[in-house]
Predict the 3D structure of the following.
Amino acid sequence: MLTIEPSKTLVEKVKQLHQQINQYNHQYYVLDQPSVPDAEYDRLMRELLEIEQANPALKTLDSPSQKVGGQPLKAFSQVTHQVSMLSLDNVFSNDEWQAFVKRIQDRLASDQTLVICAEPKLDGLAVSLRYEQGVLVQAATRGDGRTGENITENIRTIKSIPLKLTGKRGTDYPDVMEVRGEVFMPKASFEQLNVTAKKKGEKAFANPRNAAAGSLRQLDSKITAKRNLDFYAYGLGFVGDLHSKEMLESEQVFLKSSHYQRLCQVKALGLPMCPEVRLLDSPQQVQDFYQDILNKRDELSYEIDGTVLKVDDISLQERLGFVARAPRWAIAYKFPAQEELTQVEDVEFQVGRTGAITPVARLKPVFVGGVTVSNATLHNQDEIERLGLRVGDTVVIRRAGDVIPQIVSVVLEKRGDNTTDVLFPDTCPICDSKVAKAEGEAVLRCTAGLFCQAQRKEAIKHFSSRKAHDIDGLGDKLVEQLVDENLINTPADLFKLTEIDISTMERMGSKSAKNLITSLERAKHTTLAKFIYGLGIREVGEATAANLANHFCTLSAMQDANFETLQKVDDVGAIVAKNITAFFKEEHNLAVVSTLDSIMTWPDIVIKSAGELPLAEQTFVLTGTLSQMGRSEAKSALQSLGAKVSGSVSAKTHFLVAGEKAGSKLTKAQDLGVSVLTEDELVSLLAKYN
Ligand code: I6G
C-alpha cells in the first residue's frame, strides 16, 4: 500500500498550530486571561482537526486535539506507581497542629521555627500525571497508593492540564517527571451539571467531589470532556531518567530546594497551581492562614475541607521521611466537618407567607459545620421523592457556611425495619383549610390566604422586615405573640397597637413598647416601592416592586392594571402578573391595602422618560459584599435612576461597584479599564440624585 509522507511544510504547520492552541489554552484555563476571541480558537482547532483527519500520522499524543475524548474503553487498566502515592494525616485543632510541629522538632532535634508551605485542601481526587520528554503519557488515580487506575484518556480532556510541558527538556524539566495534584469540579460547574441532570430526570451528584469522581471514572472520555474538571498541582512523584528506577537527586534535576519554589517551577511548566498557596514563617501566620481560608471558603470557586501544611525545606522533608502511608512533613489541618450522619425523627409541615407548605425534617441533633443542627428543610414532595426519604431513615446532613442545613442523601444500608412513609397533609396543618397544588408546581399550598394564622404571621413579619418597613423592635417572636393573643391580624393592625397592648407582652417593658410605637410612627412614611414590596405579593421582590412603582407611579394605577398591562413592566412576566392580579382580587387583601393606604404616606413619583433619568444608558455591575445597603437594594436604587445593572463585566460596563472581598469581577474590570466605585462612592452617587 502506498503511504504518503506528510510534507515538511504541513509538519511545520501542525507544530505551529500546537504551539498556538497550547498557548491559548494556557491563557484561558490556567491564567484566566484569554487573549483571543473564542471564534479564533475554534478556527485554529478546526484547522488542526482537518489536517489530522487527512494525515493520521500527524495526530500525536500531545496534540491539543486529544482533549476532546477518544474511543470508549472496556475497562481501566492498572498502573503501578513508581513512587507510592501517599495520603495525609489530619489534625482538627491548633493544639493538635502544635503537637505535630513538636513531633517534627523533636525528630530533627531542633526547636527552630519551621517555614511552612500552606494551601487549601481541595475536596477532589489525587492523581499522578506522568510526563516523559515533556509529553503527558500516563495519568493514574491514587488507588491504594501503590496501584491506581489508568485514567489517561480522561485526564487528557481536562482543559487546564497541558499535554506538553512548556520549556526545554533537560533544562526546564527532566526526562521523566510525575506531577501530583488534585482533580476537582468547580462549584459552578457542579451546580450546572446537577441542574441539567435534574432536567433530564437523572440522579444528581451529592457534592462536587462525587461529581469529579464520577466524571473521572467514565470509560467514555467524551463524557469526561463535557464535565469541566480542573486541576491544581501539589507536588512531585517520580523524577528521573527514562530507563532508571532511581530518583534523581535534586541537584541533578535543577529542582529548587523549597517545596514552594518547586510548585512555582511546576507552574512555569504550564501546570495550574492553586493561587492561595503561601509560605508562612511563624505559628501565628499558620493560624491566620487557617482562619483566612476558613473565612474565604464560601467565596472560593471550588470546594475545600481544610488546609494542607507542609515543611517547606526539601532536605528537612527528606530527613523526616514517612510513617505508614503518610509523610511526616505534611498534615491536613481540617475544618469542622460539613457533612455528618444523623436520623430523621419526624417530618413536620410549616406554612409560609404565601401558603407554601414546606416539609421540615426534625433530626436527632448533630454537630455539623460548627453548630448543632436539629432541623432541615425538605423543600417539597419532589425533593422527598428524589431522596427516597422515610421517617426513621439515617441521612447525610450538610451545613455549608451560613446556608440552611440540607439533607444530601439517605443511607439505605442503615435503613431499619420501622421506617414510615412521609405523609403530606390533606388540609392545612395550621387552619385546616383546603390545600392545593397549582399545575406544574411542586409546592402544596394552603388556600386560605390571610385567614390562615400562619400566613398572617408571616405576612406581618415580611411587612416589618428590614427591606420593607424596617420596624425596629418588632421581632418574629413578638409578631407571633401579638397574633396568638389576637391583638393583630393584618399588617394594618400594627398601627392600632397601643403602648399598653405592647407592654403586656412577654419580655416587653414600657421602654421597649415606647420604642416600638416610635418605629411604627416612622414606618408610616415610606416609598411606593417599599409599600408594594411590603404587601408580600408572591414573587414580587424588591427590584420588581421598584419597577412597578416607577412604571405606575401611583398605587391605584398599579391596582387597576390588568394582566397585559402589568407585563409591560420590566421583569414582570406572566407568572408575576398573575400573582399580582390574584392578590388584588381578594377582598381581604383589598381591605388591608386600603387601610394601609389611609395610614401610610410616600412622596409622589415624578414621571420621567427613561432617557431623562440621570443614569440612563449607564451599565453597572455590583460585586463583593455591600455592607451599607445590600446588593438588591443597590440594584433597585440604580435601576430607579435609569441605570442598567448587569451580572457580568464586559467592555460595555461603565462602572463596577466593588464591595468587600470583591474577587475576579474586580480584576476583570481593572484589566478592561472599567471605572471602579467603592460602596461609599456609590452611596454618594445615589444621594446626589435622591
Ligand atoms: O492528597 C493530598 C492533597 C493535597 C496530598 C497533598 C496535598 O497537598 C496540597 N500533599 C501530599 C504530600 C500528599 N497528599 C501525600
Summary: The first helix runs from residue 8 to 30. Residues 90-334 form a domain with the D-amino Acid Aminotransferase; Chain A, domain 1 fold (CATH 3.30.470.30).
